[in-house]
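dumping this here before i forget
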Amino acid sequence: MIRARRIGVTAVAALAALAGTPGLAQAQQPSGTRPLAAATDSALPPGWQVAGAGDARELVWRSPKPVPVGDARVEFHAGDRLLGVPRAGKDGRTFRLSLDQVGDTPLTDLQVQASGRRLDAPADNSATGKRRSLAPGRPPAAAPANSVDPGKPGAYRTVSGEYALAPVKLPGLPEPVEMQAVVVAPKGVTGKRPLALFLHGRHTTCYTPGSDEPDISWPCPAGMKSIPSYKGYLKDQQLLASQGYVTVSISANGVNGQDGTLDDAGAQARSSLVRQHLAKWADWAAHPAAAPATVPDAAKADLSRVLLIGHSRGGEGVNRAALDSLYPAPAAQDGYHGPVRWKIRGTVLIGPTIFGQNPVADVPSTTILPGCDGDVSDLEGETYLDGTRGISNGSALHSAVYVVGANHNFFNTEWTPGKSVAPSFDDFFEDPEQPDPVCSTGAATRLTADQQHQAGATYIAAAAQLFVGGDDRVRPLLDGTGLRAPSADPARVLTHAVGARRTGGFVPDGGVEVTGGRVCWADSDLARSCLDNDAEGRSPHFQYWDLENDSGKSAVALKWSTPGTPAKITSTAPVSLAGAKSLALRVFVPPNTTGTTLDVSVTDTAGRRAGLGQVTVDGLPGSSRTASYWARELRVPLTAAGRARLDLRHVKSLELTPRSGSGQAWLMDAWGWAPGTPAVRAAALPRVDIGRITVKEGDSGTRTYHVPVQVSGHGKGTARFYVIDQATGEATEKVVPVRPGGTPIDVAMDVKGDTRFGYDEEQNLLVKAVRGAVVGSYKGGVTAQNDDPAPKVTLTPVTDRVTEGGALSWQISLSEAADVDLWQPVLVLPVTDGAELSTKDVDPQWLLDYAGELPDPERPLSKTSLWVWMTVPAGTDGTDFTVRTVPDEVAEPTESMRLTLTDDNADPLPDQPILTGTVLDAP
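structure:
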């Protein structure tokens, strides 16, 4: 095990401040040899090692093949605990995490994940459920057509051009970022036209023609070309331009190539880049002569009507741009400092990330969730809906558009094989031995690249017509009404929404009591978790954040073995459904199930009860690799409540009674619903940003540091702060009032000084808005830098001459003990004089443990993988490297072995001797 010393204050204490065995070995091989299978409990898994020297020690994982660059963060985990986000090497195979991020965590059950999906283990497509299922991969039935189809081209011809301006310097990025874009605009229009801006996500930045090797450098190395990801939305731009929109798609390779170590994965940098471009368009609108000649009709862009479209990390980037436009970021972390001369009317987020868990409640949004997303595979973009509930006044519509059979990449033609200029790939990777019934190529539910892109363009246009154009006839395509746009056929598109003219609300985390069911959470404890171990697949509603457990994500879980037992959800405060036409419920059931039927009734505070009707819900097509536990929107009219004279201003409880056989269902929420799209006015809200300070640990004593927490803006609200325990990775949380000029948010963290070597350590604080507030920088804390030199290491003989059957031994010694486990590699070298010990001269179990190999065929020890990483445990000054020999009946000459200490590349250390061990033949 590797353990770093603990420093700092406990999580409980920090939140109180808001209120006022030696010699463990692991065999490895020098570079270029095959990966080693771990042979003992103390060994790291195949592909893992600890590398580096001194305070530059790193946990390293090397993939047997390149890991494609994507938008989901690659993360190292030890079981359920997040260790950190590693740096990717240029080879696309090697990932490195500084041991200062590991803390006290034992390096057991190591895993590499991205968006909850294992990268270091094959997917499990086995189906073990005993449920009523659809035929594998059968798509849902087609919905009725809507009266208006936004996927039809408009009346305008289009014209296109490009611009490349001087690059800009953004905080946190060492290299300037390009200001490059492609413009498609309507031709021959009069008057001002709305502006739609596209931002691509994180993809490989550079390529060499004729080569498949990935590169995410910036700037691109000599001989390589920049991948034009920004040109991947031309189809979408042309559709919008034909409908009268000026469109611009901007390049962000400079961010992609430099965001790997940023706490927010580049969200603030992308926001800054978006606003830099918007500022240029505002300049050109005011001063047409200043616009580049290659930009058509720049002067006709109406900056008071802006739609932002972002794909993957670009989705999180445009969300942050909308937030920063309403609630300015602290100047030190922002890359745009000019006035806001635009108004963002809405956002479209395609397979987005949301590392910051900070959706903008008062800007309407449509989030496209690809059912076969192999990159952001947990569909965490659902939080752009779920995370807005209760934050502000709820007038903005937030819609989720689930596209069955769509992957992550094919919404961008430059990420699509056969269409891109650089190498590209299908992010839903095929397993030829276990094809996925929903998402493998050729499955009935899987869309082709053209079908997928057409569906995406159609729903981008739908959001534009509703949010910017104000055409309420398009709303039924987005708000859970259940109508379809024929232009998107044959794609099956499902929607649900929150906000707009929804009133009241039974929300599990908003204060309810439940009988006949239970409130469940995003939690690793099965007694509290919403999904159990039998769940096949995942739910976008409970995706992983930086935290293993999240009390801010909940549902009401129902499970029954016979029909007729109601689940009753009672609100702690009366719910008003006044003015609503229907009760809209968001309910999900297990994938591939059909015909789950529930009776719905409500009761007011006077005890009057009315049965509203019955709803039936089917599960989505799903597999173990999809996030298909996703809620469907179900509506029942409130007319029966009127007839029963219920006081809809004071509704106390909601009952759901199963009428089908045994089953399961989960209620996300229930709202009063009425048609229409109200005007949205952003509320004045306080903004919370957490910073990070870096300090030296010092030689003695304990120093207390205060995490920078800034509250800006206007008004008052509440936010949930989480202090992460360095030893366990668990969070202690507290909901705290936030108000500019109010009581400072004071989180103190202690750093203990010493004179022994250790690794740098991070102590982290997270924040999420609860009500009446927004969050910018969601993560910060204190980083304590080690300021003590690494101890010197030596190798000396203990027993270096034995008779066969004895044990050779050498001691690895440190000049002084360290506060952390230190790993030192020992390499067995070829013998230069005489006979060399062979694989049959040593204990076969020892050979298996240390080299991962068997004795046959017999060969010299130096021809095996005997490059062994020995652990010197924290607080000790050495350990022994022992070689167990075995006696035999064969007369042999004296044999020997040579060994030395090496660096992490298996190169002998220049200041260390090469030692020899000698084995004599038994008499």
